[in-house]
Amino acid sequence: MHANVKLKKSALWASAAFLTTLPTPGIASTPRQQPNILCIVCEDIGPYLGCYGDTVAVTPNLDRFATQARRYTRMFSSVGVSAPSRASLITGLYPTSFGANNMRTSSASPDNDARVKPYEAVPVAGVKCYTEFLRAAGYYCTNNSKTDYQFNAPITAWDQSSGKAHWKNRPEGMPFFAIFNIAVTHESQIWKRAKEPLVVNPDDITPPPYHPNNKISRRDWAVVYGNIAAMDRMVQKYIDEVREAGLLDNTIIIWYSDHGGPMPRQKRALRDSGTLAPFMIRFPDGRFAGTVDNDLRAFVDIPATILSLAGIKPPEYMHGKAFLGKYKEAARDYIYGARDRFDAKTDCQTAVRDRRFRLLHNYMPEQSEFLDISYHRNIPTLRNMMELYNEGKLEKLPSLWFTKPRPTEEFYDIEQDPHEMNNVIDDPRYAKDVARLRKKLAEMDAAYNPFAGKPESALREHLWPGGEQPRVADPVFTRAKRKLTIECPTPGASIAYQINGEGLARGHWKLYTGPLTIKNGDKVTAVCTRIGYKPTGEIAYNY
Q1: By the 8 A CB rule, do 478 and 484 touch?
Q2: How much is the average pLDDT of 471-498?
Q3: Cα separations (Å) of 413 from 79, 421, 516?
Q4: Residues 147 and 265 in one domain
């Protein structure tokens, strides 16, 4: 089974001057040339598919999709958990760069760390959800339905964002960008779907060496594979919708997971097991069909790439590099990641990886990599591992996860040791590579993670001075004959508007990109918003 398997300155601290209306880095040349773009996103799986070489997986639809698509083998999230990953996926920034790396920063759940009050991540002025650039270029953008960005999604981010959001709701002839999220592979489904019929025999599974090879572990892995099989069927339904609408010949389809696997030492980990995500993209003209990309790619690259595919120049503030499309850049040499708080438990690690090696820095070496998170305990394998470890019966390799203290630095030759079990930081054969990655990690920490190793309370104070969420100023309306200009005094703010209570449909808000043409009797309503800020209410102007 497969389970055995130039730096840009920080967007948090760099100063920036942006217009208060949406900056337009570039616009697709003509609407006819704009492809539809469909993203189908699942949760919590590594490359556990037949097309990735997994001999146990039951994934006929995605295996067939792979013959029509380009398959990426080195696509990495910045950490093995959803909210920081999604913060990166919607902004094109490393989540550490704008205060988005602690899990569920805005959640008041009792499972979260009560010492830090909820807050939202706050990037510098001008940073947008990248879908705003698509909307400005004429796309109808829908999200069904998960956001989980570490900030409340601005009203300007989507034309629709709900369980009922669908590209079919767009005006006729308008290109669409749509995301559909599939949750059946989420970590929680290991216990919630434990009684579903299995699609693989647990005895055909050999767990990775960081799990015990026993009945409990094999059973959980079988459930994981059953959930993946269910996801595979759901993916095909979304593709069939496009085909049945006659749009397959003008729709780019992207499929990926929001990070790596759901099992212990996978989810929330900063290793390949937690950050290596499957990613495939299919072009309507058959380009790259059946090909494989082995270059290093990161989640911060995905927004820039989608904009590039739409013919839109990615904004300079993005940390990501487009790897396809009009604005394609050279492949990266390193990927960066960091691990911080998860619910009520905190670790602090940063890491850099090249094509072969990973260097990890532990800021809290006195504790183990294992974090006793109550939610995580629902997985039978984890409870079994904890019990065996406490009884001194857990085998050596699975026990490494629980060991404390641990080294301040860890270094892995992933080519020789794909599960990162053998720390070779002190092996003289790797001295030059250790020094090289140590230097690179220091550079990337400085560029993207100014609060590494510092308390989350200090980060919150920096983002929300005095403990108060910053607020967006009210819009300013300026009329010149039949033209109405809307501005916001808050640098980097975006503006949504309606005329007479309607956008493209009742209840829909348009994205303001320039002066509006209005007539006598029109009522224009505007909302100003900025990521991490409290938006204005609805402010009306009567003409």
Answers
A1: yes
A2: 97
A3: 19, 10, 58
A4: yes
Rg (CA), the chain: 24
Tokens 């820039």 found at:
304
What CA dihedral angle connects 97, 344, 404 and 259, to 10 degrees?
Answer: -50
Nearest alpha carbon to residue 79 among 306, 299, 254, 363: 299
Q: Which H/E stretch holds residue 460?
A: helix 456-463
**329 Cβ neighbours under 8 A, 6+ residues apart:** 321, 322, 323
Has residue 31 been placed in a domain?
no
pLDDT value of position 24: 42
* Residue-level pLDDT at 135: 98
Q: Which domain holds residue 419?
A: 339-467
Please check whether residue 189 lies inside any domain of the structure. yes
Q: What is the pLDDT of residue 317?
A: 98
192/326 same-domain check: yes
Q: What is the distance between the alpha carbons of residues 156 and 180, in angstroms, rounded to a whole number?
A: 19
Task: Kindly list the distances between the CA atom of residue 530 and the CA atoms of 49, 132, 471, 507, in Å, as whole numbers in the listed order.
Answer: 39, 12, 9, 20
The whole-angstrom separation of Cα 477 and Cα 485 is 6
List of long-range contacts for 196-201, beta carbons under 8 Å, 24+ apart? 196/223, 196/226, 196/230, 197/226, 198/222, 198/223, 198/225, 198/226, 199/58, 199/225, 199/226, 199/229, 200/56, 200/58, 200/225, 200/226
Render pLDDT for 161-192 as a digit per residue (tens, 0 to 9).
Answer: 999 999 999 999 999 999 999 999 999 999 99
Tell me if the pTM is above 0.90: yes
Residues 50 and 195 in one domain: yes
Q: Hey, how many other C-beta atoms are within 10 angstroms of the C-beta on 456?
A: 20
Taking alpha carbons only, the member of 532, 534, 536 closest to residue 91 is: 532
Confidence of residue 528 (pLDDT cuts 50, 70, 90): very high
- pLDDT tens digits for range 408-457: 999 999 999 999 999 999 999 999 999 999 999 999 999 999 888 888 99
Question: Is 537 part of a structural domain of the chain?
Answer: yes
Same structural domain, 215 and 260: yes
How many other C-beta atoms are found inside a 10 Å radius of the C-beta of residue 333? 10
